[in-house]
Design goal:
6 copies of one chain form a homohexamer. The first copy, chain A, has 11 helices and 14 strands. Chain A has a single domain, classed as Ribokinase (UDP-N-acetylmuramoyl-L-alanine:D-glutamate ligase). In chain A, 36% of the residues lie in helices and 22% in strands. In chain A, helix 7 packs across helix 8 and helix 9 runs antiparallel to helix 10. By secondary structure, the first copy, chain A, is an alpha/beta fold. The first copy, chain A, is globular, with a radius of gyration of 19 Å. At the A-B interface, strand 3, helix 2, strand 7 and strand 8 of A face strand 3, helix 2, strand 7 and strand 8 of B. Chains A, B, C, D, E, F: Belongs to the carbohydrate kinase PfkB family. Chains A, B, C, D, E, F: It comes from Paenibacillus pectinilyticus. Chains A, B, C, D, E, F: Keywords: ATP-binding, Kinase, Nucleotide-binding, Transferase. Chains A, B, C, D, E, F: InterPro entries: Carboh/pur_kinase_PfkB_CS, PfkB_Carbo_kinase, PfkB_dom, Ribokinase-like.
């Protein structure tokens, strides 16, 4: 059986945006797009030249079909998607009142993806991967989703698949205490952790990069922490440091930058590069993503990243 | 306290239709409308010049706000709407592949309206009504919805409010056996029943108008049965007969004709007209509604119905 | 008969905006909205929790129907609207060439609303109101409109209804001299006057807040003058002062802020609050309105205003 | 000075159509087009290879600019357009409820074109024309418009310019009696009259082709009467006959066929062809126009007409 | 190396359609879709459950990217696509004046796909296929395209890959004589030929099914000839017969039916079914495709075909 | 024969822009506009009150028709346009990822306009012009286009028509060396040269205004060099100087400013004004054009320029 560079899983949803910048109560025309943190990462990794598998549980409806085709269209293996005969594909609406006042309305609870359960996992599929990518969104969706995450970690962890974990804290989806407990636990079982500074504080209770990293890296882990415009901080048993970010001319759409960053980290690790170089490319991808509308539309191909890095001086970090 | 001609309640949803006649998996632009059998009836009754109250349980979201304003905008009392803090306003997507191949995708299960419960009823409000209008959709939505229907019937029935019941059979929402049991039971507790021919057969097991009507009218009820193009058949203890329908030039959109028919019946009853005249106006409204796109957009004002009836010879019924 | 908190009247029109920011001569796609200073105020007052009646003279056409439903949809009493059998509902087009170059093209002269006449007034209706709200737009529309304004003032003034007057100077609609004469006269007959600084200068010929206010408040009136970012100045026989405005992060659309301010004043007066508190809330509403596209779409509910005020420090006024 | 084949004048308006087939009260998106009987004829004549001049009085607004450019873009001389500094360019909305239920809402009264007056006529310009084309719409617009029509007829008639008159009866615009009186009078002063069968009956009170024609041709005139699918009937002192119409596969949009017919007649007369041939081409153009959406979009070039006629057998007339 | 069921190649283009049914000269809004006979077949075969490879030469532009992703999204192997650094992805515009008057405007000459050349072929890839599918469009595109078709036939023919050929005659793209010569020659080198009746006549000069088939099947070939509503006729050395088509309720869009038919034939052959059964399913797919808008959007999954066939009586053929 | 103020020629194309600011690979809705440097200049000159002729070679397709009508609609003589029976009207797509990242995708190579050849020139037509305007785009399109430019220069130069040349360097269309050679040669044959500072450096190898101008003005020419915000520098045998630009409040769309500048120069020369005044008006037009979306939509009428100049103090140049 063919090996695969990265396997990831989690809910991708259909996103509806109003045609105009108006309160949704007054708007009657909408555009459809696709959104999902894990599929963003999968798309990013695929564009950087690696083989990726992504799966979720989809509804048997046209929106499930749309998501399936959109992700497969990016060259990602979607063969392990399962289907719910009962629940529909999740969706959400984005209301933009002003550039700083964006509101989200979910039709996600009881979605097909929230029905994901350990039985949906193909053990052999995970074992074929070099990296298993997991986010903190999935365990927040439902009890069976959480069990699925743990089951995947169990499979990967006990068989030499490296687990990369992005906490992606969403306090709208679960209670703070439960979130802290579960995410800390998953971090503990992962090999590489990719928190933002805020998430690092949330998980550890510490307030400095070094203190956060020291707690999270316990047990031989690697932590790479996003610092916004400043860049990113990395630390493991052997080394630590800050890699400054790239200057961004115009932030068109900040969404998806963190996912692009994760894709960049995975790509660098797959290339066996030294950590500072890995992080620098991840910073570059974050900077590129914010210059384009859409969650995944701006994820660059490997040539575009290299070109951008050779052109830019990395004095400022934008990867968020 | 002011009396009210009609009170009705039930779920109104947001309806999204694709900009083009394409399978939804391939369409990325959508228009928003409003849909709901009970609010259609309420709008119809209001345009015919009567006072109406409608309520549902809405989500605290822009779509709940949209529905509330749309129905209030028709001059309907919406003051008894309640809100769910948890569940969103229901919505659905309509896929039109050809004029005969229309498919519906619901985001309705677990909606705010499905949380409707007997506690949401304002007993005094119902008692102020001359007619309580109920459909067979509401009891199919959830257990608490069914209990709410029964509670409303209880309030109305024991206090002299006339109960008008449209079975509106939706086999997608519940099992056939349960549907038959519950709808028959509600029919039994109602005063006026407005089934289609198919629904009449479903409820009684009989196959002729007279046989169906004889079963349904037991206990002094009135049955008015829609016969499609042929018109409608009415029967009670005192009289029965067929009122032929009106000729329709072009069926633009058949949805909503049954609701228009119900509105016409209620209006005629409120005017204390003889049954054949009541049914004739209901037929006319059904014929008018199918000539306009949208579920409620084509519901006529009283002047328009009268004008249409005086212009038309009623040789063919279109009320469906 | 039920009393009402506020009654207002005046022309609401249909507004068409181009789909793109292009000179209209080159644009072939348009969106429809609703616009009108008095209905904005009515919507604002209704959202703040009070009972309001609004009326105008509408055309017997789909745009009159659209306006009627839109305003009724906000919970406003529209029962006193009258109809012109001859003249159409007014409309206008907005051309936005750049953020600072916006041009308006009216189809308003000879509109139904310009046919409004004293006979359209329901005296009892006005007498049921605590406040009568009037703008300086209506007397500019036609001779019969002006007479209607005077007739309404006469009814209200001689029966203890407090008259609140917003000059809303529109020099495109009438000659400067006539405008000054009529608006001064109406101000003279009003109890509370809500001019902008420019309008205050126009009406009095004075150039300082105090001088303007001193002239306008003669005879026991209250003046509340909008000062743009600085906030607002209030003065009556007993007190005067400046209430600073709220800091606005991003001005999305300045239109409607003045109407929101008026709604805030009316709401505060209805709550019997001290003037500085009344003005502070009005400032807050103005600040909220400019953060949302549309004339009335951004008018807040009372909870939203209170929340905003408790969150914000009022160091800068934006109510214009 | 250069001579011109045809001169015509009359109001062209901006037409707004809803994006969907919905009652306008419920539609918020509109497309803009141009419409006008006289400009349709001018466009038709221009495409058939002749020189044409058209004029109207336009508003000083973007819609006047749009109309001016659209007509000039067809190669028509628009140099004699005048402008109103007060009144706007006329516009109207088309509501299509079903294919047989189309409703029109005008913003035309008091439009710039209705201000057209004899002083706007350039006598030399009219005298340069071989044919002056006039419709019965213009005299219905206002008193000054009617005077302008009479003044133009006076100029043309007394100087050897042939007057072609299309009654274009619009009973929405004026009273039946006045319409009959004025149109009969204009017909009397014209040389060639192009009524429909209904208009012929309206003007003469007669009920057969021959009787109508005999009355209208008095004084040496030519009458060419449109008979719908059957074709057209022509009569003058020397000859008369019916020219059958062309078979139409699919009537996409009937509007504009009569104007195309008029353009065809003018073109044939300019080519000095025998009447039956003139009428046959006019029939062909009518048949082509109804196969295309839009009032003037389907008007053919001369090559297209010739091709169509050589391909078709003229067994049925569609020019309406 | 993995074997593949079907390999096909040829130009897929971007298709732009106007938002309204208007002559393109007057339309300013367009929608984008994808179109291509060979990719239609590939999509059809993939939905029926087989493995397919498709390739073309694409431009290095967003439209090439769009086509690549769209086809990959259907689960088709696109790994053998090559790119032109010079020429753009082909595109075309569709003008629909009426249902019977559709006009096409190509931007296809000198497109990237027309640069396809024998060097772009991966010999091993073709040899892995069970069936090579070829259309008569590709050899019409350019000299190098024709050479590529011949080279692919050479590879497949001499190595046991079955060649299925759909003539797809396009007289707009090349001269009749050359088309007849080349297509006859390719038919001669193919194993299974899928002409329409017209194409059969064009290629053989014969006028009856049997005579056409007898000429085309020379040398042990199989011919399956589409007969429109009547169904299809098949013939080889061992058997022949007509398989009647399925009744179609409403032809929404006839384009793509022939490609669906080809996909059905390939699927049946891959399932080793007897010819009449193979043809019957192909007929069914053709009937399903015409009921949906778009070239490939209506191609059914295998379950949908089986369901449709078990529901329908095949009395009438619509596969075209 | 009538004389004409300016004659110009060159390719105008159809421009498609996406409905949203998205990478084109993800956008399926497009708007159509018109674009072309020479037609922009023609439109600009026409709006300033002069007679202009423009021509190109168009495709026999609806886009050619659209361009023809659009330019004729501006009052420009288009009678010398020729048609290609083979090649289509050129078009291009504009992708805007962010305000600073705009990408262009051409369908222009092998377009109808690229087939323009010396035989398409009407010698008498050029000789009737006072000014022949030429850009450096046309010679870059094809060999025959270059020959056409030279032939036009030959006609004009040897007969007293003043040649105005805007280098409009487009390095995407040809090689740098060839561009420098040909453009320098054309500049040498022209009378008035309108380069930007960059183009001046490219053509002369010099780096200061004076040095560039000294080289370019050799042989009695006039050079007017655009300096961006600073304004423009002019020089001829008699005089030289800088005319400062106008302050621009908001740059909405910078495209077309250079063409507006050229139109302004031509208009000033036609008015026989002194050079500083000529340049000042050209600066003003550039400043007006950048404040409006579209290439030609913002070109002002003469009254608008005069008004703008009298209102503005020219302290800063924006003409680019």
């Amino acid at each position: 059986m063919k090996s695969m560079d990265v396997v990831t899983f989690g809910e991708s949803m259909v996103l509806f945006t109003p045609a105009r910048m108006l309160p949704l109560a007054y708007e009657n025309q909408y555009y459809r797009q696709m959104a999902g943190a894990e599929s963003n990462v999968a798309i990013g990794v695929s564009r950087l030249g690696h083989s990726v598998g992504w799966f979720s549980k989809l509804g048997r409806d046209p929106f499930g079909e749309f998501i399936y085709k959109s992700i497969q269209g990016e060259g990602i293996d979607v063969s392990r998607c399962t289907y719910s005969e009962e629940a529909p594909t999740g969706l959400f609406f984005k209301e933009k009142r002003s550039s700083g006042d964006v509101r989200i309305y979910y039709y996600r609870r009881h979605s097909a993806a929230s029905m994901l359960q350990p039985e949906d996992l193909d053990e052999d599929y995970i074992l074929r991967a070099k990296y298993l990518h997991i986010t903190g969104i999935t365990p927040a969706l439902s009890k069976s989703c959480r069990e699925t995450v743990y089951a995947a970690i169990e499979i990967a962890g006990s068989n030499g698949v490296t687990i990369v974990f992005d906490p992606n804290l969403r306090l709208k989806l679960w209670h703070e205490d439960e979130a802290r407990r579960v995410l800390s636990d998953i971090a503990q079982k992962s090999h590489i952790i990719l928190p933002g500074m805020d998430e690092g504080m949330f998980l550890t209770g510490e307030h400095t990069r070094e203190a956060i990293a020291t707690k999270l890296t316990k047990g031989g882990k690697t932590v790479i922490m996003k610092l916004g415009k400043e860049g990113a901080f990395y630390q493991n048993e052997d080394e630590n440091g800050v890699v400054p970010g790239f200057l961004v001319q115009e932030v068109v759409d900040p969404v998806g930058a963190g996912d692009g960053f994760s894709a960049g980290i995975l790509s660098g690790l797959l290339r066996d590069e030294p950590l500072p170089k890995v992080v620098r490319r991840a910073n570059a991808i974050g900077a590129l993503v914010v210059g384009v509308n859409g969650d995944s539309e701006g994820l660059p191909k490997i040539e575009e990243v290299e070109q951008f890095m050779s052109r830019s001086s990395s004095t400022q970090d934008v990867s968020r």
